[in-house]
Automatic annotation (TrEMBL):
CC annotations in GO: extracellular region
Molecular function as annotated in GO: chitin binding; endochitinase activity
Pfam families: Glyco_hydro_18
Protein name: Glycoside hydrolase superfamily
Annotated Gene3D superfamilies: Glycosidases (3.20.20.80)
PROSITE patterns according to UniProt: GH18_1, GH18_2, RHODANESE_3
Keywords: Carbohydrate metabolism, Chitin degradation, Glycosidase, Hydrolase, Polysaccharide degradation, Signal
Occurrences of domain GH18 (ranges): 34-396
Catalytic activity: Random endo-hydrolysis of N-acetyl-beta-D-glucosaminide (1->4)-beta-linkages in chitin and chitodextrins
KW RNA-binding (keyword) present: no
UniProt family annotation: Belongs to the glycosyl hydrolase 18 family.
Region forming the signal peptide: 1-16
Keyword Oxidoreductase among record annotations: no
Length: 446
């Protein structure tokens, strides 16, 4: 089962979403086709991957060193990348290399800031990237600097001129790479910090040199107490302690600063977080205990299944297994699910087929550049999460007798989001959850 989307004929009483900035190019162009992208982490490789499901695979990570050359973060990375390129290029999937990442932005001291600081260092850095690009037969470069003008992880270094220097670096990199090479950047929900220490109010110049930015709309609360959503769609209740850290907030921040929606890709997670808590709801805000394989508190979607916490029901949905002691709840303020166990005193904030379907439908509605999954190994071997994203980006909606496909619903921004029900009907076309702007989620058989 996948979730397909249709536009509702009638309005619904709902929670109001924050208003969205609506740029002049909001209307969809005839050639509009959002991208399906995923990160491929070299420290957590998937058992299998169907490359045909993806337009682009971004291999993570390479790191800049003190000489502005690229080094690998694991010994097996070069061979893994070569295999990814070989298998992806057997079809039409492109492969990019991501430089940086959270820890990759912090060899002590950080070398991103100095690598882009002068015309000479930018030239050296770009030439070294070009060497790796050509040697590895890549199709593009992703810059994941966390974060220009900000400390990021403790021990990182930054400069007030990081953002303008990075803009000049992107210009040099575009000139160095072959024609048609892709360039992207992973960014926060807020715009780059400028020389005045505040988010930049005009980032339009960056769009000239990058093909897209990925909004890293995840890790909003991680394992903090009290528990909060990992990847909120919006601050629908208006009571979040992180009111700008959500997909709608990121869209508003970047588009109001002049960045085109068609070049904004929404980052979505294939993982959640385990929080030791007996909270009954997400903050704004049994016999089973979930465990994190890497000790960080992160738990992959597939791990929730492996640990017997989630199970797939006959209608295709993934719900809490009755024997697990967990119950699946829905946080209407962020449009994300969470799992709660009173016996284990645990709360798990995560994303699933339903919440990712909503995010993908919103991306399509807003004419954004696509979605980017971090990362592919957290999905099931059958790629349930990816199929939910693809279905809602590419599949034409099924029109029932109670709905119409309204042009006005496509052109106008989201403004409402009712709470989904906790179950999905397998015997009818009953609406299971509502999307912003009257776009509805319904079950459909594949």
């Amino acid at each position: 089962m996948s979730f397909l989307l249709v536009a509702a004929l009638f309005p619904f009483l709902s929670l109001a979403l924050p208003s969205l900035h609506t740029p002049s190019l909001h209307l969809r162009s005839p050639s509009y086709r959002p991208r399906i992208i995923t990160y491929y982490a070299d420290w957590a490789t998937p058992k299998s991957i169907d490359y045909a499901l993806f337009d682009i695979v971004i291999f993570a990570f390479a790191l800049p060193d003190q000489n502005y050359q690229l080094r690998w973060d694991t010994d097996q990375a070069p061979n893994l990348l070569a295999n990814v390129v070989h298998e992806a290029h057997a079809g039409t999937t492109k492969v990019m290399l991501s430089i940086g990442g959270w820890t990759g932005s912090r060899p002590v001291p950080s070398y991103f800031s100095s690598a882009v600081a002068t015309a000479q260092s930018r030239e050296i850095f770009a030439n070294n990237i070009l060497d790796v690009y050509m040697h590895c037969d890549l199709d593009g470069i992703d810059i994941d600097w966390e974060y220009p003008g900000q400390t990021g992880e403790p021990g990182n270094t930054e400069s007030a001129t990081d953002a303008p220097n990075m803009l000049q670096f992107f210009k040099v990199l575009q000139q160095k790479l072959p024609p048609g090479a892709l360039i992207s950047a992973a960014v926060q929900d807020s715009t780059f910090v400028g020389p005045n220490g505040q988010p930049m109010k005009d980032v339009s110049a960056f769009s000239q040199f990058v093909d897209w930015i990925t909004l890293m709309n995840y890790d909003a609360y991680s394992t903090r107490q009290p528990p909060g959503p990992n990847a909120p769609l919006s601050n629908a209740c208006g009571t979040s302690s992180e009111p700008s850290q959500n997909a709608v907030g990121g869209y508003n921040a970047w588009t109001s600063a002049g960045f085109p929606p068609s070049k904004i890709v929404l980052g979505v997670p294939s993982y959640g977080y385990i929080i030791e808590s007996n909270a009954r709801r997400l903050s704004e805000r049994s016999s089973y205990r979930a465990y994190s394989e890497d000790g960080t508190g992160q738990i992959q979607f597939q791990s929730l299944i492996n640990q017997g916490i989630l199970t797939q029901y006959p209608n295709g949905s993934f719900r809490a297994a009755e024997s697990s002691g967990f119950t699946r709840e829905w946080d209407q303020c962020s449009a994300t699910p969470y799992l709660r166990s009173n016996s284990a005193d645990q709360v798990i904030s995560y994303d699933d087929i339903e919440s990712l379907s909503i995010k993908a439908a919103w991306v399509k509605k807003m004419n954004m550049g696509g979605v980017n999954l971090f990362d592919v190994h957290g999905d099931t071997p059958q790629h349930h999460l990816v199929h939910a994203l693809r279905d809602n980006l590419y599949t034409q909606p099924t029109i029932s007798s109670s709905v119409v496909h309204s042009p006005s619903a496509v052109a106008s921004p989201p403004n409402t989001i009712p709470s989904p029900t906790s179950t999905v009907s397998s015997s009818s076309n009953a609406l299971s959850s509502a999307l912003p702007g009257g776009i509805m989620l319904i079950p459909s058989r594949n």
